[in-house]
Design brief:
With about 500 residues, the chain is of the alpha/beta class. It has two domains: about 5-60 and about 95-220, Glutaredoxin (3-Layer(aba) Sandwich), CATH 3.40.30; about 240-480, Glutaredoxin, CATH 3.40.30.10. Helix content is about 40%, strand content about 10%. It is built from 20 helices and eight strands. The strands form two sheets. It has a four-stranded mixed β-sheet. Strand 3 and strand 4 form a beta hairpin. It is globular.
Length: about 500
């Protein structure tokens, strides 16, 4: 049996705003999971250099984003800061060199003192506007933090320098391409080929629920039940932080909230997001109307200057992680499904994901079929990402539709009608006009009074990994007016709303 106090190693660089966000949350996570938290800083620039990051060793990840992606991710960043009520005043010069700050941290052996100094350095960089590349400023911050015995010699300390280099090399070997990183040495990692290795790496402050589930699984005394330790973690879904403590929408004879789901069948991430729409519908009941919005992602990419295959434009390390991240999300939702018993109830069932042999998938005809008959959407997504069907071939597409009980030839013929082609072009143009940068993208619209127009709230939410943000927006969270609404783990208890018959897709 694993130790009752598993170890969590936190990799970070003071120069990363996402590592700063993680630093405000990781202590509470360690306390909830009874984990021993080890602060182990790394050199972000060296990681970028070693992994051939497109922005270069001295750049920021957003440097290579197109304007649409910059706008969407900037909005997401502001939402995140509001959700966790984090002070944020970035310096005009960014990134600043932090190598001496990180070496100084390795001169502080006591982990509690290192945590205190780490927090002070993050505040100095991201809130107070202090120049952490200045050695005198660094020593003053250490003094203010109550850390004694440091002087200018710490910046050239051979042991500290070596430890920083070793920590960075370890992170790279474990798969890091950025920060924050989380290493759980006691976790058992099972690769696709079935090989079992000790130690598991996670990346990103928005993947801390994976970290928490893994740590809780290690500490669990239960040996019965589901084989996946994540499925044995009580109330797994509630590990996604929420601002609003309820999922109850106002009672009404008609929907008071609309959720637009913008997608293309060509995206494995859109597929994953689509699999969760029935769960959202059950969670919020008839007060929520889900509206499917298919469009041509490749055309949008061309229009906004994005690569047609985004994974070819990132470092190999990030591309490898992206596939692993998708597997983690598939595992997560399957574990949630096991806990909620949906496969036994005949509602959802396990996601049986399979990477497409033919990629990218050409989807114009497939999308138009979905417009002609929205009820085929589930069948078409499954064909693309579970059954590995080459739906770009009309004969294969027809076979998929026929086997599902539709008249495939008729649907394809209707999908080629000029009006349907115009509809798809219009949806694609609308996606660009709204500012989409990828899929899936969610947009929540709310009706304040019966009979009034539905108004968008919270902006565009890009990525199925922000489904907890979508849930909060559905139930009334307003990012611009969120005083006192702190995103917290375990804030919501999830119960299906009775009387819901599933997703009613509308175009």
């Amino acid at each position: 049996m694993a130790s009752q106090s598993p170890t969590l190693i936190f990799n970070y660089d003071i120069s990363c705003p996402f590592a700063y966000i993680a630093s405000t949350r990781v202590q509470a996570l360690a306390q909830r999971t009874n984990a021993t938290l080890v602060y182990r800083p790394v050199l972000l620039g060296a990681i970028y250099r070693a992994t051939a990051a497109p922005q270069g060793a001295g750049g920021s990840a957003s440097d290579v984003f197109n304007s649409a992606k910059k706008a969407v991710t900037a909005k997401s960043m502001q939402r995140t800061l509001r959700r966790y009520q984090i002070a944020y005043n970035p310096p005009p010069q960014h990134p600043r060199k932090t190598v001496n700050a990180l070496r100084m941290l390795y001169c502080v052996a006591d982990q509690e003192k290192r945590r205190t100094l780490t927090d002070a350095l993050f505040r100095a960089y991201w809130v107070e506007g202090r120049d952490v590349s200045n050695d005198a400023v660094l020593l003053q911050i250490a003094k203010e933090s109550g850390v004694e015995g440091l002087d200018a010699s710490c910046f050239g300390n051979v042991e500290a320098r070596g430890e920083l280099e070793r920590a960075t090399a370890e992170a790279i070997e474990r798969g890091a391409f950025g920060v924050p990183g989380f290493w759980i040495p006691d976790a058992i990692d099972v690769e696709k080929d079935g090989k079992r290795e000790k130690g598991r790496f996670f990346w990103g402050q928005d993947r801390m629920h994976f970290v928490e589930a893994t740590l809780l699984g290690l500490s669990s005394k239960s040996t019965s039940g589901p084989s996946d330790p994540w499925a044995r973690v009580p109330n797994l879904r509630s590990l996604l932080p929420r601002c609003v403590h309820s999922n109850i929408l106002p009672s009404s004879n008609s929907p008071t909230v609309k959720l637009e789901f913008w997608f293309d069948f060509s995206s494995p991430w859109a597929f994953l997001g689509y699999t969760q729409l029935p769960r959202l519908q059950r969670t919020f009941g008839p007060g929520l109307e889900i509206v499917l919005k298919p469009f041509l992602l490749g055309i949008l990419f061309r229009e906004i200057g994005a690569p047609n295959m985004p994974m070819l434009a990132v470092s190999p390390a990030k591309a490898t992680w992206s596939r692993r991240d998708h597997a983690d999300w598939t595992r997560w939702w399957n574990a949630v499904d096991v806990q909620e018993g949906q496969s036994e109830k005949g509602k959802d069932g396990q996601i049986k994901f399979h990477w497409a042999d033919v990629f990218p998938i050409r989807t114009p005809t497939v999308l138009r079929v979905g417009i002609v008959e929205p009820a085929t959407t589930k069948v078409l997504f499954s064909a693309c990402w579970e059954q590995n069907k080459n739906v770009a071939d009309d004969s294969v597409l027809q076979s998929v539709l026929d086997e599902a009980g539709y008249d495939g030839a008729d649907l394809i013929a209707r999908a080629n009608a000029p009006a349907i082609k115009a509809k798809l072009r219009a949806l694609t143009a609308e996606a660009k006009e709204m500012g989409l940068c990828g899929v899936p993208t969610y947009r929540v619209l709310r009706q304040q009074q019966s009979g009034e127009e539905f108004e968008p709230v919270g902006g565009l939410v890009w990525g199925q990994d922000e489904i907890n943000v979508v849930e909060d927006l559905i139930v009334g969270w307003v990012p611009e007016n969120s005083d006192g609404q702190l995103a917290e783990v375990g804030k919501v208890k999830y119960d299906d709303v009775h009387g819901v018959k599933g997703v009613g897709p509308k175009l």
